[in-house]
Design brief:
The chain is of the alpha/beta class. The chain folds into 2 domains: 312 residues, Rossmann fold; 255 residues, Glycogen Phosphorylase B (Rossmann fold, 3-Layer(aba) Sandwich). It is built from 22 helices and 20 strands. The strands form 4 sheets. Strands 1, 2, 5, 6, 7, 8, 9, 10, 13 and 14 form a 10-stranded mixed beta sheet that branches. Helix 16 links the parallel strand 16 and strand 17. Helix 5 crosses helix 6. The chain binds pyridoxal-5'-phosphate.
Length: 575
Protein backbone atom coordinates (compact mmCIF):
# COMPACT_ATOMS: atom_id res chain seq x y z
CA UNK A 1 0.00 0.00 0.00
CA UNK A 2 1.30 3.42 -1.04
CA UNK A 3 0.72 5.03 2.33
CA UNK A 4 2.76 2.42 4.17
CA UNK A 5 5.56 2.58 1.59
CA UNK A 6 5.79 6.31 1.86
CA UNK A 7 5.93 6.29 5.63
CA UNK A 8 8.57 3.59 5.57
CA UNK A 9 10.87 5.92 3.65
CA UNK A 10 11.27 8.00 6.80
CA UNK A 11 13.59 5.59 8.61
CA UNK A 12 15.79 2.64 7.79
CA UNK A 13 14.49 0.46 10.60
CA UNK A 14 11.91 0.51 13.37
CA UNK A 15 11.01 -0.34 16.92
CA UNK A 16 8.01 -2.67 16.77
CA UNK A 17 5.93 -2.41 19.93
CA UNK A 18 3.64 -5.36 20.64
CA UNK A 19 0.72 -4.93 23.02
CA UNK A 20 -2.44 -6.95 23.57
CA UNK A 21 -4.38 -3.74 24.12
CA UNK A 22 -4.09 -0.18 22.91
CA UNK A 23 -6.22 2.81 23.97
CA UNK A 24 -6.32 5.42 21.20
CA UNK A 25 -9.39 7.61 21.49
CA UNK A 26 -7.73 11.00 21.35
CA UNK A 27 -6.86 10.66 17.72
CA UNK A 28 -10.39 10.30 16.51
CA UNK A 29 -11.50 13.91 16.68
CA UNK A 30 -13.37 13.62 13.41
CA UNK A 31 -15.82 11.17 14.89
CA UNK A 32 -18.50 12.62 17.09
CA UNK A 33 -20.38 10.92 19.84
CA UNK A 34 -23.97 9.75 19.75
CA UNK A 35 -24.26 6.93 17.26
CA UNK A 36 -20.54 6.75 16.87
CA UNK A 37 -20.04 6.56 20.58
CA UNK A 38 -20.49 2.82 20.71
CA UNK A 39 -17.85 2.53 18.02
CA UNK A 40 -15.50 4.82 19.85
CA UNK A 41 -15.91 2.86 23.03
CA UNK A 42 -15.16 -0.35 21.21
CA UNK A 43 -12.09 1.09 19.59
CA UNK A 44 -10.73 1.68 23.03
CA UNK A 45 -9.66 -1.90 23.04
CA UNK A 46 -8.21 -1.79 26.49
CA UNK A 47 -9.26 -2.85 29.93
CA UNK A 48 -7.16 -0.50 31.96
CA UNK A 49 -3.73 0.91 32.56
CA UNK A 50 -1.85 -1.33 30.14
CA UNK A 51 -3.77 -0.19 27.06
CA UNK A 52 -3.77 3.46 28.06
CA UNK A 53 -0.02 3.26 28.60
CA UNK A 54 0.38 1.71 25.15
CA UNK A 55 -1.69 4.51 23.61
CA UNK A 56 0.25 7.19 25.46
CA UNK A 57 3.58 5.63 24.43
CA UNK A 58 2.46 5.66 20.80
CA UNK A 59 1.31 9.27 21.03
CA UNK A 60 4.63 10.37 22.52
CA UNK A 61 6.57 8.36 19.94
CA UNK A 62 4.64 10.22 17.22
CA UNK A 63 5.31 13.63 18.82
CA UNK A 64 8.99 12.76 19.19
CA UNK A 65 9.16 11.45 15.60
CA UNK A 66 10.63 8.15 16.70
CA UNK A 67 11.00 5.23 14.29
CA UNK A 68 8.24 3.40 16.10
CA UNK A 69 5.22 1.28 15.18
CA UNK A 70 2.77 -0.85 17.10
CA UNK A 71 1.07 -4.21 16.65
CA UNK A 72 -2.08 -5.24 18.50
CA UNK A 73 -5.36 -7.15 18.07
CA UNK A 74 -8.49 -5.58 16.61
CA UNK A 75 -10.81 -6.71 19.49
CA UNK A 76 -13.93 -6.19 17.39
CA UNK A 77 -16.20 -6.60 20.34
CA UNK A 78 -13.93 -4.47 22.46
CA UNK A 79 -13.83 -4.86 26.17
CA UNK A 80 -17.34 -4.16 27.51
CA UNK A 81 -19.67 -1.36 28.38
CA UNK A 82 -20.60 -1.41 32.04
CA UNK A 83 -24.11 -1.01 33.36
CA UNK A 84 -24.73 -0.97 37.11
CA UNK A 85 -28.01 -1.92 38.75
CA UNK A 86 -29.21 0.18 41.71
CA UNK A 87 -27.62 -2.45 43.95
CA UNK A 88 -24.28 -2.08 42.21
CA UNK A 89 -24.42 -5.36 40.30
CA UNK A 90 -22.32 -5.06 37.14
CA UNK A 91 -23.88 -5.98 33.82
CA UNK A 92 -21.61 -6.31 30.79
CA UNK A 93 -22.60 -5.30 27.28
CA UNK A 94 -20.42 -6.23 24.35
CA UNK A 95 -20.75 -3.96 21.37
CA UNK A 96 -19.62 -4.84 17.88
CA UNK A 97 -17.99 -2.10 15.95
CA UNK A 98 -16.79 -1.77 12.42
CA UNK A 99 -13.17 -0.71 12.02
CA UNK A 100 -13.88 0.59 8.52
CA UNK A 101 -14.83 4.04 9.73
CA UNK A 102 -11.53 4.41 11.52
CA UNK A 103 -8.81 2.55 9.67
CA UNK A 104 -7.85 0.92 6.42
CA UNK A 105 -7.56 -2.76 5.71
CA UNK A 106 -4.21 -3.73 4.20
CA UNK A 107 -4.06 -6.02 1.18
CA UNK A 108 -1.49 -8.36 2.73
CA UNK A 109 -2.71 -11.59 4.21
CA UNK A 110 -0.57 -13.81 6.38
CA UNK A 111 -1.09 -17.15 8.04
CA UNK A 112 -0.37 -18.89 11.31
CA UNK A 113 -1.07 -22.46 12.31
CA UNK A 114 -3.49 -23.10 15.17
CA UNK A 115 -4.64 -26.62 16.08
CA UNK A 116 -2.99 -27.72 12.84
CA UNK A 117 -5.30 -25.47 10.83
CA UNK A 118 -4.07 -22.60 8.75
CA UNK A 119 -5.57 -19.40 10.12
CA UNK A 120 -5.49 -16.36 7.87
CA UNK A 121 -4.83 -12.95 9.36
CA UNK A 122 -5.39 -9.53 7.88
CA UNK A 123 -4.41 -6.21 9.37
CA UNK A 124 -5.95 -2.77 9.70
CA UNK A 125 -3.76 0.28 9.58
CA UNK A 126 -4.36 3.22 11.87
CA UNK A 127 -1.99 6.15 11.78
CA UNK A 128 -1.41 8.21 14.91
CA UNK A 129 -0.30 11.71 14.00
CA UNK A 130 1.83 13.59 16.46
CA UNK A 131 1.62 17.27 17.25
CA UNK A 132 4.71 17.63 15.08
CA UNK A 133 4.61 15.91 11.71
CA UNK A 134 5.63 12.60 13.28
CA UNK A 135 3.48 9.58 12.46
CA UNK A 136 3.22 6.16 14.02
CA UNK A 137 1.57 3.23 12.28
CA UNK A 138 -0.54 0.92 14.41
CA UNK A 139 -1.45 -2.47 12.97
CA UNK A 140 -4.58 -4.17 14.28
CA UNK A 141 -4.56 -7.90 13.53
CA UNK A 142 -7.86 -9.48 12.52
CA UNK A 143 -8.73 -13.15 11.94
CA UNK A 144 -12.24 -12.38 10.71
CA UNK A 145 -11.17 -13.32 7.20
CA UNK A 146 -12.97 -15.29 4.49
CA UNK A 147 -11.76 -18.85 4.36
CA UNK A 148 -11.22 -19.13 8.12
CA UNK A 149 -13.56 -21.37 10.11
CA UNK A 150 -16.27 -19.58 12.07
CA UNK A 151 -14.41 -20.33 15.30
CA UNK A 152 -11.15 -18.90 14.00
CA UNK A 153 -12.88 -15.77 12.76
CA UNK A 154 -13.75 -14.98 16.38
CA UNK A 155 -10.19 -15.20 17.75
CA UNK A 156 -9.62 -11.45 17.66
CA UNK A 157 -13.09 -10.45 18.94
CA UNK A 158 -12.86 -10.26 22.71
CA UNK A 159 -10.17 -8.53 24.69
CA UNK A 160 -9.33 -10.73 27.69
CA UNK A 161 -12.41 -12.84 26.94
CA UNK A 162 -12.81 -16.59 26.65
CA UNK A 163 -10.81 -19.35 28.28
CA UNK A 164 -7.12 -20.24 28.31
CA UNK A 165 -7.37 -21.86 24.95
CA UNK A 166 -8.82 -18.70 23.44
CA UNK A 167 -6.10 -16.64 25.08
CA UNK A 168 -3.33 -18.85 23.72
CA UNK A 169 -4.79 -18.58 20.23
CA UNK A 170 -4.85 -14.79 20.57
CA UNK A 171 -1.25 -14.81 21.69
CA UNK A 172 -0.25 -16.88 18.67
CA UNK A 173 -1.96 -14.35 16.41
CA UNK A 174 -0.35 -11.39 18.19
CA UNK A 175 3.19 -12.74 18.61
CA UNK A 176 3.76 -15.01 15.63
CA UNK A 177 1.24 -13.34 13.32
CA UNK A 178 2.61 -9.90 14.21
CA UNK A 179 6.18 -10.77 13.22
CA UNK A 180 4.96 -12.26 9.95
CA UNK A 181 2.87 -9.21 9.14
CA UNK A 182 5.82 -6.86 9.55
CA UNK A 183 7.89 -9.08 7.31
CA UNK A 184 5.13 -9.23 4.68
CA UNK A 185 5.07 -5.42 4.71
CA UNK A 186 8.82 -5.30 4.15
CA UNK A 187 9.47 -3.56 7.45
CA UNK A 188 12.95 -3.79 8.91
CA UNK A 189 12.75 -4.18 12.65
CA UNK A 190 15.53 -2.98 14.92
CA UNK A 191 13.90 -4.14 18.16
CA UNK A 192 10.78 -6.03 19.08
CA UNK A 193 9.37 -4.54 22.25
CA UNK A 194 7.02 -6.80 24.22
CA UNK A 195 4.68 -4.74 26.37
CA UNK A 196 3.89 -7.43 28.96
CA UNK A 197 4.24 -11.17 28.28
CA UNK A 198 1.16 -11.60 26.06
CA UNK A 199 3.24 -11.20 22.92
CA UNK A 200 6.24 -13.29 23.91
CA UNK A 201 5.52 -16.06 21.39
CA UNK A 202 7.12 -13.65 18.93
CA UNK A 203 10.45 -14.83 20.31
CA UNK A 204 9.75 -18.34 18.96
CA UNK A 205 9.11 -17.02 15.49
CA UNK A 206 12.37 -15.08 15.69
CA UNK A 207 14.26 -18.15 16.92
CA UNK A 208 13.11 -20.03 13.86
CA UNK A 209 14.24 -17.25 11.61
CA UNK A 210 17.66 -17.10 13.21
CA UNK A 211 18.67 -20.76 13.28
CA UNK A 212 17.56 -21.13 16.91
CA UNK A 213 20.32 -18.76 18.03
CA UNK A 214 19.20 -17.44 21.41
CA UNK A 215 21.78 -14.66 21.48
CA UNK A 216 20.70 -13.28 18.15
CA UNK A 217 17.08 -13.14 19.28
CA UNK A 218 18.10 -11.55 22.56
CA UNK A 219 19.79 -8.81 20.62
CA UNK A 220 16.48 -8.09 18.94
CA UNK A 221 14.12 -8.13 21.92
CA UNK A 222 13.12 -5.75 24.71
CA UNK A 223 10.66 -6.76 27.41
CA UNK A 224 8.61 -4.69 29.83
CA UNK A 225 7.04 -6.63 32.68
CA UNK A 226 4.04 -5.13 34.46
CA UNK A 227 3.09 -7.84 36.91
CA UNK A 228 4.42 -7.75 40.49
CA UNK A 229 2.87 -11.04 41.61
CA UNK A 230 3.67 -14.58 40.60
CA UNK A 231 0.02 -15.51 39.97
CA UNK A 232 -0.41 -12.67 37.51
CA UNK A 233 1.86 -14.09 34.81
CA UNK A 234 0.29 -15.82 31.83
CA UNK A 235 0.97 -19.56 31.97
CA UNK A 236 -0.16 -22.43 29.77
CA UNK A 237 0.10 -26.18 30.31
CA UNK A 238 2.33 -27.93 27.80
CA UNK A 239 -0.58 -30.17 26.96
CA UNK A 240 -2.56 -27.15 25.81
CA UNK A 241 0.47 -25.74 24.03
CA UNK A 242 0.92 -29.04 22.19
CA UNK A 243 -2.73 -29.07 21.20
CA UNK A 244 -2.90 -25.47 19.99
CA UNK A 245 0.58 -24.55 18.86
CA UNK A 246 1.74 -28.07 17.85
CA UNK A 247 5.43 -28.69 17.48
CA UNK A 248 6.24 -25.17 16.35
CA UNK A 249 9.55 -25.56 18.11
CA UNK A 250 10.94 -28.59 19.99
CA UNK A 251 9.44 -29.08 23.41
CA UNK A 252 12.88 -29.60 24.80
CA UNK A 253 13.92 -26.12 23.77
CA UNK A 254 10.58 -24.61 24.72
CA UNK A 255 10.81 -26.01 28.25
CA UNK A 256 14.31 -24.73 28.62
CA UNK A 257 13.17 -21.21 27.71
CA UNK A 258 9.64 -21.10 29.07
CA UNK A 259 9.79 -23.21 32.22
CA UNK A 260 9.72 -26.90 33.07
CA UNK A 261 6.18 -27.33 34.44
CA UNK A 262 4.26 -25.02 32.13
CA UNK A 263 4.89 -22.37 29.54
CA UNK A 264 5.35 -19.14 31.48
CA UNK A 265 5.13 -16.22 29.06
CA UNK A 266 7.11 -13.94 31.35
CA UNK A 267 9.94 -16.43 31.64
CA UNK A 268 9.99 -16.91 27.88
CA UNK A 269 10.31 -13.17 27.38
CA UNK A 270 12.97 -12.90 30.09
CA UNK A 271 15.07 -15.61 28.51
CA UNK A 272 14.93 -14.06 25.08
CA UNK A 273 15.25 -10.35 25.73
CA UNK A 274 18.50 -8.44 25.83
CA UNK A 275 16.88 -5.73 27.86
CA UNK A 276 14.24 -6.17 30.54
CA UNK A 277 12.56 -3.50 32.61
CA UNK A 278 9.92 -2.99 35.27
CA UNK A 279 7.64 0.06 35.30
CA UNK A 280 8.78 1.84 38.47
CA UNK A 281 11.83 1.63 40.72
CA UNK A 282 9.87 -0.21 43.35
CA UNK A 283 8.44 -2.62 40.79
CA UNK A 284 11.94 -3.30 39.52
CA UNK A 285 12.98 -4.39 43.01
CA UNK A 286 9.95 -6.63 43.42
CA UNK A 287 10.50 -8.17 39.98
CA UNK A 288 14.19 -8.67 40.66
CA UNK A 289 13.32 -10.68 43.76
CA UNK A 290 10.84 -12.75 41.80
CA UNK A 291 13.40 -13.43 39.04
CA UNK A 292 16.80 -13.17 40.73
CA UNK A 293 18.83 -14.57 37.87
CA UNK A 294 17.85 -11.87 35.37
CA UNK A 295 19.00 -8.31 35.17
CA UNK A 296 15.96 -6.09 35.44
CA UNK A 297 16.08 -2.32 34.96
CA UNK A 298 13.55 0.34 35.83
CA UNK A 299 11.92 2.71 33.40
CA UNK A 300 9.14 4.41 35.30
CA UNK A 301 5.88 4.83 33.42
CA UNK A 302 4.42 8.11 32.31
CA UNK A 303 1.37 9.54 30.62
CA UNK A 304 0.95 11.63 27.48
CA UNK A 305 0.90 15.13 28.89
CA UNK A 306 -1.22 16.89 26.29
CA UNK A 307 -3.83 14.12 26.14
CA UNK A 308 -4.43 14.11 29.87
CA UNK A 309 -4.36 17.84 30.53
CA UNK A 310 -7.75 19.53 30.79
CA UNK A 311 -8.39 22.37 28.30
CA UNK A 312 -8.40 24.87 31.17
CA UNK A 313 -4.83 23.91 32.05
CA UNK A 314 -3.72 23.55 28.42
CA UNK A 315 -4.69 27.19 27.97
CA UNK A 316 -2.81 28.22 31.05
CA UNK A 317 0.34 26.31 30.10
CA UNK A 318 0.19 27.67 26.56
CA UNK A 319 0.11 31.16 27.99
CA UNK A 320 2.85 30.84 30.61
CA UNK A 321 4.89 27.81 29.56
CA UNK A 322 4.74 27.71 25.76
CA UNK A 323 6.08 24.54 24.18
CA UNK A 324 5.15 22.44 27.24
CA UNK A 325 3.20 19.80 25.30
CA UNK A 326 6.21 18.57 23.39
CA UNK A 327 8.65 19.40 26.14
CA UNK A 328 6.84 18.65 29.40
CA UNK A 329 10.03 19.40 31.38
CA UNK A 330 9.02 23.04 31.04
CA UNK A 331 6.22 22.37 33.52
CA UNK A 332 8.93 22.53 36.17
CA UNK A 333 8.33 26.29 36.07
CA UNK A 334 4.65 26.03 37.04
CA UNK A 335 5.31 28.23 40.04
CA UNK A 336 5.57 31.20 37.70
CA UNK A 337 1.88 30.91 36.84
CA UNK A 338 -0.15 33.35 38.99
CA UNK A 339 -1.99 31.62 41.83
CA UNK A 340 -5.37 33.01 40.97
CA UNK A 341 -5.16 31.75 37.40
CA UNK A 342 -4.16 28.29 38.60
CA UNK A 343 -7.14 28.34 40.91
CA UNK A 344 -9.48 29.45 38.13
CA UNK A 345 -8.31 26.59 35.93
CA UNK A 346 -8.95 24.18 38.80
CA UNK A 347 -12.46 25.55 39.26
CA UNK A 348 -13.19 25.25 35.57
CA UNK A 349 -12.20 21.58 35.45
CA UNK A 350 -14.12 20.91 38.65
CA UNK A 351 -17.23 22.63 37.40
CA UNK A 352 -17.25 20.53 34.25
CA UNK A 353 -17.14 17.30 36.24
CA UNK A 354 -19.69 18.29 38.85
CA UNK A 355 -22.13 19.66 36.25
CA UNK A 356 -21.78 16.33 34.49
CA UNK A 357 -22.34 14.38 37.70
CA UNK A 358 -25.36 16.52 38.57
CA UNK A 359 -26.83 16.05 35.09
CA UNK A 360 -26.55 12.27 35.40
CA UNK A 361 -27.75 11.86 38.94
CA UNK A 362 -29.98 14.86 39.48
CA UNK A 363 -27.71 15.25 42.45
CA UNK A 364 -26.53 18.44 44.02
CA UNK A 365 -22.78 18.13 44.13
CA UNK A 366 -21.47 21.51 45.11
CA UNK A 367 -18.64 23.40 43.43
CA UNK A 368 -17.55 24.68 46.82
CA UNK A 369 -17.14 21.31 48.48
CA UNK A 370 -13.86 19.42 48.64
CA UNK A 371 -14.13 16.53 46.15
CA UNK A 372 -12.32 13.23 46.39
CA UNK A 373 -11.89 11.00 43.31
CA UNK A 374 -11.26 7.29 43.05
CA UNK A 375 -11.49 5.62 39.65
CA UNK A 376 -9.56 2.70 38.30
CA UNK A 377 -9.97 -0.89 37.18
CA UNK A 378 -11.76 -2.71 39.97
CA UNK A 379 -9.56 -5.42 41.43
CA UNK A 380 -9.48 -6.56 45.02
CA UNK A 381 -5.88 -5.42 45.53
CA UNK A 382 -6.84 -1.83 44.67
CA UNK A 383 -9.03 -1.78 47.80
CA UNK A 384 -11.66 0.54 46.46
CA UNK A 385 -13.60 0.50 49.75
CA UNK A 386 -10.73 1.08 52.17
CA UNK A 387 -11.91 4.62 52.86
CA UNK A 388 -15.09 3.13 54.33
CA UNK A 389 -13.40 1.04 56.99
CA UNK A 390 -14.69 3.36 59.72
CA UNK A 391 -17.99 4.95 58.75
CA UNK A 392 -18.47 6.79 62.02
CA UNK A 393 -15.11 8.47 61.74
CA UNK A 394 -15.86 9.44 58.17
CA UNK A 395 -19.17 11.03 59.21
CA UNK A 396 -17.45 12.89 62.00
CA UNK A 397 -14.84 14.33 59.62
CA UNK A 398 -17.54 15.32 57.16
CA UNK A 399 -19.37 17.27 59.86
CA UNK A 400 -16.24 19.27 60.55
CA UNK A 401 -15.17 19.73 56.95
CA UNK A 402 -17.63 18.60 54.29
CA UNK A 403 -16.44 16.52 51.36
CA UNK A 404 -18.01 14.58 48.49
CA UNK A 405 -16.71 11.60 46.55
CA UNK A 406 -16.83 10.42 42.94
CA UNK A 407 -16.09 6.77 42.14
CA UNK A 408 -15.89 4.79 38.92
CA UNK A 409 -14.42 1.49 37.74
CA UNK A 410 -15.12 -1.75 35.91
CA UNK A 411 -14.41 -5.25 37.18
CA UNK A 412 -13.29 -7.97 34.79
CA UNK A 413 -16.38 -10.05 33.86
CA UNK A 414 -14.91 -13.10 35.56
CA UNK A 415 -13.68 -11.27 38.66
CA UNK A 416 -16.48 -12.14 41.06
CA UNK A 417 -14.68 -10.72 44.16
CA UNK A 418 -14.13 -7.48 42.21
CA UNK A 419 -17.82 -7.31 41.32
CA UNK A 420 -18.74 -7.98 44.93
CA UNK A 421 -16.53 -5.09 45.95
CA UNK A 422 -18.60 -2.72 43.77
CA UNK A 423 -21.76 -4.00 45.43
CA UNK A 424 -20.24 -3.52 48.83
CA UNK A 425 -19.29 0.02 47.90
CA UNK A 426 -22.88 0.66 46.85
CA UNK A 427 -24.08 -0.48 50.25
CA UNK A 428 -21.71 1.98 51.96
CA UNK A 429 -22.92 4.73 49.67
CA UNK A 430 -26.52 3.92 50.66
CA UNK A 431 -25.80 3.89 54.35
CA UNK A 432 -24.04 7.26 54.17
CA UNK A 433 -26.48 8.89 51.78
CA UNK A 434 -28.05 11.28 54.27
CA UNK A 435 -24.70 12.64 55.34
CA UNK A 436 -22.07 12.35 52.63
CA UNK A 437 -22.59 12.79 48.92
CA UNK A 438 -21.04 9.91 47.05
CA UNK A 439 -21.62 8.83 43.47
CA UNK A 440 -20.44 5.81 41.49
CA UNK A 441 -20.35 6.57 37.77
CA UNK A 442 -20.85 3.62 35.43
CA UNK A 443 -18.62 2.63 32.52
CA UNK A 444 -15.23 4.06 33.39
CA UNK A 445 -13.35 4.64 30.15
CA UNK A 446 -10.90 7.14 28.77
CA UNK A 447 -13.59 9.73 28.07
CA UNK A 448 -14.88 9.61 31.63
CA UNK A 449 -11.30 9.49 32.96
CA UNK A 450 -10.57 12.85 31.31
CA UNK A 451 -13.40 14.55 33.15
CA UNK A 452 -13.15 12.69 36.40
CA UNK A 453 -9.45 12.86 37.10
CA UNK A 454 -9.11 16.54 36.22
CA UNK A 455 -12.30 17.53 38.03
CA UNK A 456 -11.70 16.40 41.60
CA UNK A 457 -9.52 18.06 44.25
CA UNK A 458 -7.86 14.97 45.68
CA UNK A 459 -6.91 11.72 43.97
CA UNK A 460 -7.10 8.82 46.38
CA UNK A 461 -5.12 5.63 45.77
CA UNK A 462 -5.13 2.74 48.24
CA UNK A 463 -3.63 -0.38 46.65
CA UNK A 464 -2.26 -3.25 48.67
CA UNK A 465 1.50 -2.77 48.44
CA UNK A 466 3.46 -4.08 46.46
CA UNK A 467 0.70 -4.96 44.00
CA UNK A 468 0.58 -1.67 42.08
CA UNK A 469 3.48 -1.98 39.64
CA UNK A 470 3.28 1.66 38.70
CA UNK A 471 -0.20 3.16 38.39
CA UNK A 472 -0.64 6.14 36.10
CA UNK A 473 -3.90 7.88 36.98
CA UNK A 474 -2.18 9.86 39.74
CA UNK A 475 0.19 11.28 37.09
CA UNK A 476 -2.85 12.40 35.09
CA UNK A 477 -4.21 14.03 38.25
CA UNK A 478 -0.97 15.94 38.82
CA UNK A 479 -1.05 17.36 35.27
CA UNK A 480 -4.29 19.07 36.29
CA UNK A 481 -3.17 20.25 39.69
CA UNK A 482 -5.16 17.50 41.40
CA UNK A 483 -3.37 16.49 44.57
CA UNK A 484 -2.34 12.87 45.25
CA UNK A 485 -3.08 11.06 48.49
CA UNK A 486 -1.74 7.55 48.09
CA UNK A 487 -0.17 4.42 49.48
CA UNK A 488 3.58 4.50 48.77
CA UNK A 489 3.48 1.90 46.04
CA UNK A 490 4.49 1.98 42.36
CA UNK A 491 5.29 5.43 40.96
CA UNK A 492 4.17 7.36 44.05
CA UNK A 493 7.21 6.14 45.99
CA UNK A 494 9.19 8.24 43.47
CA UNK A 495 6.84 11.21 43.13
CA UNK A 496 5.98 11.73 46.79
CA UNK A 497 7.42 14.46 49.00
CA UNK A 498 5.29 14.65 52.13
CA UNK A 499 3.23 17.80 52.33
CA UNK A 500 4.96 19.18 49.22
CA UNK A 501 3.72 17.07 46.30
CA UNK A 502 0.86 15.45 48.21
CA UNK A 503 0.51 12.97 51.07
CA UNK A 504 1.29 9.35 51.78
CA UNK A 505 -0.88 6.63 53.26
CA UNK A 506 0.72 3.97 55.43
CA UNK A 507 4.30 2.82 55.92
CA UNK A 508 7.28 4.18 54.02
CA UNK A 509 8.79 1.88 51.40
CA UNK A 510 11.75 0.94 53.59
CA UNK A 511 9.63 0.14 56.67
CA UNK A 512 9.04 -3.57 57.03
CA UNK A 513 5.93 -3.93 59.14
CA UNK A 514 3.71 -6.93 59.81
CA UNK A 515 0.60 -6.78 57.63
CA UNK A 516 -1.75 -5.92 60.49
CA UNK A 517 0.42 -3.08 61.69
CA UNK A 518 0.75 -1.72 58.15
CA UNK A 519 -3.03 -1.83 57.76
CA UNK A 520 -3.54 0.01 61.04
CA UNK A 521 -1.12 2.71 59.92
CA UNK A 522 -2.91 3.06 56.60
CA UNK A 523 -6.26 3.70 58.25
CA UNK A 524 -4.70 6.07 60.73
CA UNK A 525 -3.15 8.09 57.91
CA UNK A 526 -6.29 8.17 55.81
CA UNK A 527 -8.47 9.57 58.58
CA UNK A 528 -5.95 11.69 60.45
CA UNK A 529 -4.45 13.37 57.42
CA UNK A 530 -7.89 14.07 55.96
CA UNK A 531 -9.17 15.52 59.22
CA UNK A 532 -6.14 17.40 60.48
CA UNK A 533 -4.06 18.25 57.42
CA UNK A 534 -5.72 18.00 54.05
CA UNK A 535 -9.24 19.33 54.64
CA UNK A 536 -8.19 22.19 56.94
CA UNK A 537 -5.61 23.31 54.40
CA UNK A 538 -8.14 23.24 51.59
CA UNK A 539 -10.75 25.24 53.47
CA UNK A 540 -8.61 27.48 55.67
CA UNK A 541 -5.28 27.97 53.95
CA UNK A 542 -6.13 28.26 50.29
CA UNK A 543 -2.69 29.77 49.47
CA UNK A 544 -0.97 26.71 50.81
CA UNK A 545 -3.33 24.45 48.93
CA UNK A 546 -2.60 26.25 45.66
CA UNK A 547 1.09 25.82 46.35
CA UNK A 548 0.59 22.06 46.48
CA UNK A 549 -1.44 22.25 43.29
CA UNK A 550 1.50 24.03 41.63
CA UNK A 551 3.96 21.54 43.06
CA UNK A 552 1.93 18.70 41.60
CA UNK A 553 2.52 20.22 38.20
CA UNK A 554 6.10 21.38 38.72
CA UNK A 555 7.44 18.41 40.65
CA UNK A 556 5.34 15.56 39.27
CA UNK A 557 3.91 16.31 35.83
CA UNK A 558 7.21 17.65 34.48
CA UNK A 559 8.74 14.19 35.00
CA UNK A 560 5.97 11.56 35.01
CA UNK A 561 5.11 11.72 31.32
CA UNK A 562 5.64 9.40 28.34
CA UNK A 563 7.93 11.88 26.54
CA UNK A 564 10.53 11.32 29.27
CA UNK A 565 9.69 7.62 29.38
CA UNK A 566 10.12 7.12 25.62
CA UNK A 567 13.43 8.95 25.67
CA UNK A 568 14.57 6.56 28.39
CA UNK A 569 13.53 3.60 26.25
CA UNK A 570 15.45 5.06 23.34
CA UNK A 571 18.70 5.54 25.23
CA UNK A 572 18.51 2.48 27.48
CA UNK A 573 16.65 -0.19 25.56
CA UNK A 574 16.25 0.57 21.86
CA UNK A 575 19.63 1.90 20.75
C1 LIG B 1 -5.12 5.96 33.27
C2 LIG B 1 -6.20 4.97 33.21
C3 LIG B 1 -6.09 3.75 33.87
C4 LIG B 1 -4.89 3.42 34.72
O1 LIG B 1 -5.06 3.93 36.00
P1 LIG B 1 -4.24 3.32 37.24
O2 LIG B 1 -4.11 4.39 38.21
O3 LIG B 1 -2.91 2.91 36.69
O4 LIG B 1 -5.02 2.17 37.72
C5 LIG B 1 -7.13 2.85 33.79
N1 LIG B 1 -8.24 3.11 33.07
C6 LIG B 1 -8.39 4.28 32.42
C7 LIG B 1 -9.64 4.52 31.64
C8 LIG B 1 -7.39 5.24 32.46
O5 LIG B 1 -7.55 6.40 31.79
Amino acid sequence: MEEVKKLLDNFSDYIAYFSMEVGLDENLPTYGFGYKESQTIALLAYSGGLGVLAGDSIRSAADLKLPFMAVTLISKKGYFKQELTPEGRQIEHYISWNPEGFMKILPQEIEVEIEKRKVKIKAWLYIVEGSTDGKVMVFFLDTDVQGNSEEDRRITDYLYGGDEKYRLKQEIVLGIGGVRLLEALGIRVRKYHMNEGHSSLLTLELLKRHNLKVDTVKGLCVFTTHTPVEAGHDKFSYELVGEILGDFISFEMLKELGGKGHLNMTLLALNLSGNVNGVSKKHREVSQKMFPSYEIHAITNGIHSYTWTHPSFRKLYDKYLPGWANEPEILVRAETIPDNEVWQARLEAKKELLDYVNSLTAGDFSHEVFTIGFARRVAVYKRQALLFSDLERLKKINKKYPFQIVFAGKAHPKDEPGKKMIEQLFSYIRSLKDEIKIVYLADYNMGLAHKLIAGVDLWLNTPQSPMEASGTSGMKAAHNGVVNFSVLDGWWAEGWVEGVTGWSIGPQPNEKLPAEEAYRRELEDIYNKLEYVILPMYYEQRDKWVEIVQNSIAKIAYFFNTHRMMRRYVTEAYF
